[in-house]
Write a sequence for this structure.
């Protein structure tokens, strides 16, 4: 009820209130015991008057007692209020310290600028105002905590980091040196590139309050209170409730008060899975319009930063690689709240870990205008073609991947079934897909090897041909629906010659044959299928979790290309041959397109799109028998022309002799520091040396969390509704008065003082009525 | 006590008094028509001879006054907030009146009582009789509760000859019985005077602060804040006084409320003055 009083301890207050109640009663009782004795003759009249007046006298005495108790209690509360106003007095009274926990939202949305000032600028100004307010009081302590620092704690859940280390100011007493300290610390406050929620900072505050028992906690949240976090504050509310139960006064200070639109790059990644040097690689970029209005005429700049083997070998850590700018992309319009995706090609002539950056024009929030990606470009993506029977099929497959002198970015490697049996699993894992030209009977270990390969993200394509053993296929590959194949095959079917204009192959809505979905496409119309394998009539793609990409005409139609997921990888079955004995597809240009798109699908499992956010740790593991332990990390800085260089010495990941070296950046890395080591979006490079002394590099792209770019604010009324039950005070940053004339305690005193005067007057009236005042002269019996 | 009485009387009295009773005397006072039962010896036969009607001759009685002092010596009389307690004041009043009467050669006797008669001195007019009366008052230390009604009845029975009965008491007894006793005395033809003695404290109740009142004549006690009860107490006392005063007036009893803080001579002067003016009017 009185959070600002000099003591929040219920025991202290119970003691005070009990004393205030007991005091008048005790005095009354003592007075009764200290009465004088009078030997009295006219007892009859006295007893008669007492009998007549007894109830009324008792009532008046009770009222008088209550008035006195009330007056004492109000005087106590007023004294407490004075203690609150004048903390020196509170100190003399054994008063409590008020501990102000100032939590600053430094997520990147606080960098939003309005009228030339960012929300973080306003937060800094508010902290200065708070400092001025507190300097006028005694018994004040201040803790300053940034959201980003608190998020470190959550990452270090298993580590033993003292809470105090997270704070910028830890329980500093407000004295003559405090203003200087606060000024110094608040000037260092900047909006980070992180998207840190309030929940972690509030949780740390809750723990700090528990540690500082006996103080009066006041928690200030200086934030922009975006809708994306506060519209449904399911995570925050329980902690706020806990703080409220701990008698903490909650002060929500809005540092962003205007809704503004914003554009953000929310995705940048390769469009396909083939990342080979010498072939164009399509990149996909997505821009979101976080506003209520459509945005038009947006120019997106694209940059590449080649980083090839030469750079790796001859380059030095800390050297800034030059960027090459690609033709800009132009987006005519992005509707309100919508996203637009654009693709653009990048070309790298040599393998390497190349960087790509896209950049939007400046707007109210700069942090989400850029996005980076690392393309791990190989010389060629290797595929394995397993020959089973007629070698013509392998020939067509290999030729499709290496059409003439042109490079598709895929390097075929033809092997037999026996050679597959002796293939090292690690070597198998390096190939992007396996193509089986016909299926014979595989020995169990080979089959198991293939299964493991696909389960771990590999791709497998099976072409059925004349030499295929369907019974063995069903037994080893279908396995009653549990195996690699999406469908069983029961017999071979000959397709009679079709009518003029009726194509043998019907493309369905599937990425593999997506370019040929148009029924008028002449390429597919030219394909002739003569023989193919068919599943049982009752087989259905829906019950088998399979996707059918193409059908063979007929009544009924039969599946031609069927695909399914297996573990993290994919398996595709083409029910006709890869050679010309059963069809003429190899001579059709659509075969090349189908095969390359199939390759992209099959290889996508091995190279899942990996997105790293700023603030997350970057961990590097190195084989101990190949690398030295010293590693140099390059990290971006606020200036694009300068890179930070951090030297790390890797440590063994465990006690084993052959345990790999482990090192990295960020809070959870060995020798790692705070989140700020990975807190700036951009390209990070680790330079390690192998035992021969040659450089080996590892690169990562760290980007901001795009959701934080949604600048829609909840609004004051909405925020009040969310936190109203907590008794929280919601104000705008410019409403914080540095010299409050009317704070809660003053207002309370203004109520209490007249009430006390009223009670004292009432007490005098009651005392007079109860005849505790001196006798009026001249009154006697007559 | 006798000195105090002498001092008061010497400073106050002068001359003889006239007896209020009609009786054997040389000084004719008036004729009255004969009524049945009158003594035939008092018939004025000369008037009968002239007017043929029977008239009685009445003379001023020249006999001595017979005065009985009934003094309350109960425990309630011990209370005294001032220089004298009610008991001491009552004794002084009694001594004064006794001395006064004896000096006028009137007969005077006394009765000291509480709930019963503690001492009794017969009515005599000897000059040295004053000492016996003072002795009877002095020896009686107040001890018990007043029970005035039966006691006055007893006096009425004990003293059949008409005279003056002066009751000196605080009348803290059963009011109805007290008034009945006084009424009986009047019916027996006594001239009854009541000196109602009360202390200032009893009339003004000036106490304040937590007080324990303990009864002088009972085990009753009361812890209270006297200020809170004062109005009701004064009201009860006023009611009591008015009741006594009204009944006395109705019975032709001379009543005087005397505060123990008053000077006795002044109080007596006022009383006598009032009494004489009342008699003159009658």
């Amino acid at each position: 009820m009185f959070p600002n009083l000099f003591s929040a301890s219920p025991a202290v207050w119970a003691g005070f209130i009990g004393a205030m109640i007991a005091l008048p009663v005790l005095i009354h009782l003592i007075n009764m015991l200290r009465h004088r004795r009078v030997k009295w003759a006219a007892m009859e009249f006295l007893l008669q008057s007492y009998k007549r007046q007894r109830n009324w006298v008792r009532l008046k005495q009770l009222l008088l007692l209550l008035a006195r108790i009330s007056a004492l209690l109000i005087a106590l509360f007023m004294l407490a209020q004075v203690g609150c106003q004048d903390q020196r007095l509170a100190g003399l009274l054994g008063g409590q310290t008020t501990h102000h926990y100032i939590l600053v939202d430094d997520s990147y949305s606080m960098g939003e600028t309005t009228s030339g000032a960012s929300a973080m600028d306003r937060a800094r100004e508010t902290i200065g105002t708070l400092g001025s307010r507190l300097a006028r009081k005694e018994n004040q302590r201040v803790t300053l905590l940034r959201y980003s620092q608190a998020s470190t704690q959550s990452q270090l859940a298993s580590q033993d980091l003292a809470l105090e280390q997270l704070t910028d100011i830890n329980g500093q007493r407000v004295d003559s040196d405090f203003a200087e300290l606060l000024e110094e610390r608040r000037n260092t406050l900047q909006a980070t590139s992180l998207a840190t929620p309030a929940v972690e900072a509030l949780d740390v505050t809750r723990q700090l309050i528990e540690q500082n028992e006996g103080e009066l906690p006041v928690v200030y949240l200086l934030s922009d209170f975006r809708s994306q976090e506060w519209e449904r504050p399911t995570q925050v509310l329980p902690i706020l409730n806990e703080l409220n139960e701990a008698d903490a006064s909650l002060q929500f200070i809005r540092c962003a008060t205007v809704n503004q639109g914003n554009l953000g790059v929310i995705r940048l990644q390769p469009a396909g899975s083939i990342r080979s040097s010498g072939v164009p690689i399509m990149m996909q970029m997505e821009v979101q319009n976080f506003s209520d209005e459509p945005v038009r005429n947006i120019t997106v700049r694209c940059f590449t930063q080649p980083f090839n083997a030469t750079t790796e070998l001859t380059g030095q850590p800390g050297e800034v690689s030059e960027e090459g700018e690609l033709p800009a992309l132009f987006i005519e319009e992005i509707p309100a709240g919508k996203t637009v995706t654009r693709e653009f090609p990048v070309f790298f002539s040599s393998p390497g870990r190349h960087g790509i950056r896209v950049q939007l024009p400046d707007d109210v929030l700069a942090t989400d205008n850029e996005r980076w990606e690392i393309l791990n470009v190989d010389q060629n993506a290797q595929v394995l073609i397993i020959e089973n029977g007629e070698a013509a099929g392998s020939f067509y497959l290999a030729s499709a991947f290496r059409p003439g002198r042109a490079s598709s970015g895929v390097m075929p490697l033809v092997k037999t079934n026996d050679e597959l049996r002796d293939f090292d699993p690690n070597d198998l894992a390096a190939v992007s897909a396996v193509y089986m030209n016909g299926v014979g009977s595989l020995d169990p270990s080979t089959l198991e090897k293939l299964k493991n390969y696909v389960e771990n993200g590999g791709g497998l394509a099976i072409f059925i041909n004349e030499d295929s053993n369907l019974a063995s296929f069903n037994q080893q590959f279908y396995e009653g629906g549990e195996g690699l194949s999406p469908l069983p095959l029961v017999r071979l079917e000959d397709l009679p010659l079709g009518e003029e204009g009726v194509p043998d192959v019907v493309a369905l809505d599937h990425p593999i044959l997506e370019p040929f979905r148009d029924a008028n496409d002449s390429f597919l119309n030219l394909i002739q299928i003569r023989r193919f394998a068919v599943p049982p009539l009752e087989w259905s793609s829906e019950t088998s979790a399979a996707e059918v990409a193409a059908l063979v005409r007929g009544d009924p139609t039969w599946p031609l290309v069927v695909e399914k997921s297996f573990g993290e990888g994919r398996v595709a079955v083409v029910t006709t041959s890869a050679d010309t004995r059963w069809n003429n597809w190899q001579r059709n240009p659509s075969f090349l397109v189908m095969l390359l798109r199939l390759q992209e699908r099959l290889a996508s499992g091995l190279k899942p799109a990996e997105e790293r956010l700023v603030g997350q740790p970057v961990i590097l593991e190195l084989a101990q028998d190949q690398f030295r332990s010293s590693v140099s990390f390059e990290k971006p800085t606020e200036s694009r022309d300068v890179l930070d260089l951090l030297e790390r010495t890797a440590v063994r990941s465990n006690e084993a002799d052959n345990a790999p070296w482990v090192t990295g950046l960020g809070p959870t890395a060995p020798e790692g520091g705070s989140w700020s080591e990975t807190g700036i979006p951009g390209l990070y490079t680790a330079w390690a040396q192998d035992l021969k002394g040659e450089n080996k590099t590892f690169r990562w792209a760290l980007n901001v969390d795009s959701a934080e770019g949604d600048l829609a604010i909840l609004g004051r009324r909405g925020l009040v509704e969310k936190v109203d039950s907590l008794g929280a005070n919601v104000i705008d940053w410019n409403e914080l008065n540095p010299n409050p004339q009317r704070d809660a305690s003053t207002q309370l005193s203004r109520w209490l003082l007249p009430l006390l005067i009223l009670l004292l007057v009432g007490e005098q009236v009651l005392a007079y009525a109860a005849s505790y005042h001196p006798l009026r002269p001249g009154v006697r019996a007559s | 006590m006798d000195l105090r009485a002498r001092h008061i009387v010497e400073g106050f009295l002068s001359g003889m008094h006239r007896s209020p009773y009609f009786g054997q005397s040389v000084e004719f006072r008036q004729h009255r028509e004969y009524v049945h039962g009158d003594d035939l010896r008092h018939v004025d036969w000369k008037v009968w001879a002239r007017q043929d009607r029977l008239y009685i001759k009445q003379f001023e009685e020249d006999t001595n006054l017979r005065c009985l002092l009934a003094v309350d010596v109960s425990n309630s009389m011990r209370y005294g907030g001032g220089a004298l307690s009610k008991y001491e004041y009552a004794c002084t009043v009694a001594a004064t009146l006794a001395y006064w009467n004896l000096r006028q050669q009137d007969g005077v006797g006394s009765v000291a009582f509480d709930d019963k008669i503690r001492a009794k001195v017969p009515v005599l007019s000897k000059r040295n009789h004053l000492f016996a009366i003072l002795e009877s008052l002095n020896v009686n230390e107040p001890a018990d509760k007043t029970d005035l009604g039966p006691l006055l009845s007893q006096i009425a029975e004990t003293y059949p000859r008409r005279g003056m009965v002066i009751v000196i008491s605080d009348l803290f007894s059963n009011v109805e019985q007290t008034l009945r006793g006084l009424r009986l005395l009047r019916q027996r033809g006594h001239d009854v005077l009541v000196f109602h003695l009360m202390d200032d404290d009893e009339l003004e109740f000036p106490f304040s602060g937590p007080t324990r009142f303990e009864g002088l004549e009972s085990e009753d006690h009361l812890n209270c804040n006297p200020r809170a009860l004062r109005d009701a107490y004064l009201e009860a006392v006023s009611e009591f006084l008015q009741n006594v005063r009204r009944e006395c007036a109705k019975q032709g009893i001379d009543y005087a409320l005397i505060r123990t803080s008053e000077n006795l001579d002044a109080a007596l002067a006022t009383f006598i003055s009032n009494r004489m003016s009342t008699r003159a009017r009658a």
Q: What stands out?
A: The longest helix of chain B spans residues 226-251. The two ends of chain B are 35 Å apart (CA to CA).
